[in-house]
What we know:
The chain is 26% helix and 19% strand. The protein is of the alpha+beta class.
Amino acid sequence: MFPQVKNLPFCKAYAIGKSHQLPYKGKLRKAPYSGNTVHSDLSGKISPLPIGGGQYYLKFTNDFSKFKTIYILKKKSETCEAIKDYINQVKTNQNKPVKVMVNDNGAEYVSGDVQEFINKEGIRM
Length: 125
């Protein structure tokens, strides 16, 4: 009823269509020191509402050590103050400045206050 698999001709189009992209073999750039590059993301609304009423959380990940710091925020408008606090903590604890902040360019990161602070600190986004 059906032809045997070993008797089917090779179909180049089928083989290409079923192929998968190979994994990236290049080296990913890692931050040269702890605190140099920081990844940040704001998430929420948290449900059910936790004790203390924080609806959002702002997560910072140190690219070098992968250490994560989380701030619980009641409002998105608290994002700028949390970013300032985190950057100042890194500067104090590491004795080196944050040079790069990686984020999703959400509205909370492109607001005037955050951009002004980032520019003043010389941080590249």
